[in-house]
Amino acid sequence: MQAFMTLRIALRALARNKLRAFLTMLGIIIGVGAVIAMVAIGEGAKSTIRAQIAALGTNVLIVLPGSNVQGGVRAGFGNVTTLLDSDAKAMARELPSVAFVSPVLRRQDQVVAGNLNWGTLAQGVAPEFQQIRDWQVAEGRFLHEGDMDSAAKVAVVGQTVARQLFGNDDALDAVIRIRNIPFRVVGVLGPKGQTGQGTDQDDTIMIPYTTMQKRLMRITWVQSIVVKAVSAERVEEAQEQITLLLRQRHRIGPEREDDFNVRNLSDIAEAATTTARVMAVLLGSVASISLLVGGIGIMNIMLVSVTERTREIGIRMAVGARSRDIMLQFLVEAVVMAATGGLIGILLGIGSSEVLKQWAQWPTLISPTIVAIAFLFSGAVGVFFGFYPAKKAASLDPIEALRYE
Amino acid sequence: MSELIRVEDVHKTYRMGDVEVPALRGINLTIAQGEFVAVMGSSGSGKSTLMNILGCLDRPNTGKYFLEGHEVGSLKPDQWAYIRNKRIGFVFQGFNLLSRTTALENVELPMMYNGFAGQERHQRAIEVLSLVGLDKRLDHMPNQLSGGQQQRVAIARALVNRPSLILADEPTGNLDCVTSNEIMALFQQLNTGQGITIILVTHEADIAAYARRQIVFRDGLVISDRVSEQVIAKMEH
User: Fold this and answer.
1) ipTM of the assembly?
2) Domain that holds residue B138
3) From the list A311, A321, A325, which residue is nearest B96 (CB)?
4) What's the pLDDT tens digit per position in A311-344?
5) What's the structural domain count of chain A?
């Protein structure tokens, strides 16, 4: 019997019991819909986290001074004066795996412009900081090498600071004061938005690190050094080279601990994406179970259907249907139900993840691979759970089947 | 006339739990092409068992069954399905039409299992339905047809693959007297007009009287096999 004919017979049999066919499909519909929606939510979360981490700057390492041990008291990070800007310069000069290096000094300060003031994070950085953080300049320029050498009193302000101090007025070339020291605004940074933790990255002001050292903090060391490796693959290499270089420069003997700490942002990235992946797998497996339950529903109804249609099977056999014709008929019925349910479920899943995106602002992401897998899987569920009832139908004795009331 | 069916020393025993029930105890029978045979006997006499064996639905324990000169009693189920499809038409007491399926589609059913294309299948189904006088009822469902009409659809279905043999198991058992006579007249017409061999199982002597040859079963044996000269005069012109 031709494939087309078998399909037509199956469709007609299902059309005879539309409500029942629909209710049977419902298990698969909900299962597939749940798989699609859940995975879309998981993928969306994963890509959001990835984007947030990329915004922090990829391939970035942070070098912090180690903690100071004095008479058994271990102070926290940042209280040590061992890290110098010459360390930063040496890294840039000597390490092939390092692309950009910038010392960083930070303090919270009150910034005054005219009759307005605003408390913000002042950062002393080198020109390379712009490349390290991939930060655009909206207006004017970023800090340059000349500013460093002369410890110039120039500043680049973030979007939030510009808005708070100047409103709609032009911030460029205005004079602002930090602890009564006047700074000329030479540039306005482009917007960067919030971090994953909700910190406003635009609420900042950047000045040359030399100016920060000499005029604001009156120190000779630096608080940290940020480093960008030449590529993501060479981050670990850079980490090793920095460690080696600093141990040399700080004259640390082989048996002594580092007096600094090299941190890798990709660890954080990995932890975050792993969390998202675990969540996606969890959601996906819960949804798969409901798909399985849907399959059992199909098997149940197919068994009922075989019993109900015993006489029909007998008639078909009497007029010349072979066992495999009967088998195929019931198998195709199960697969058609499962696959149709799968299709409706895919539409439902895509629809509901769109609704979540539009109304609840959830970042969902439909994965075409998952859509294809869900469809094939629902077909496979049909074959798997349809096989036993179909086998049962095909092995009926035509004499018994014809006599069945 | 050439031989259509030859049954040689067929035995069939059913097992009911621990008890063996002999249904056929050595049947020998020859039926020629174009015969109209009535098989009679009380229930349990073995006539239904014989019909199942003749219809390639059941296997004899011992003995041989030749259909058109070929031994078919020991074939495989798929080969039986092919023979049932091509060579044998069944008519049942309970009509056995597919419910919620039109008369036309019911008649097309046997052709679905031998690869007829849609157009030819249609054409032939319409042909046989008009042969049994139902060309106005093609799109009726079985529950929209009277018992006699349903049985005509069943006969059309039996005819559609142009079989050499029709096996009718109490075809008038569910019909009233007038309709029974109409159906029997139709069988006679098919027998004489189309030359189709018909084997008919019945309880009733007046139904059996439509057939030229009458075989009586008792306790798994043939006790009488005679050809009557006087056949009920057929169609009401």
Assistant:
1) 0.93
2) 96-160
3) A311
4) 999 999 999 999 999 999 999 999 999 999 999 9
5) 2
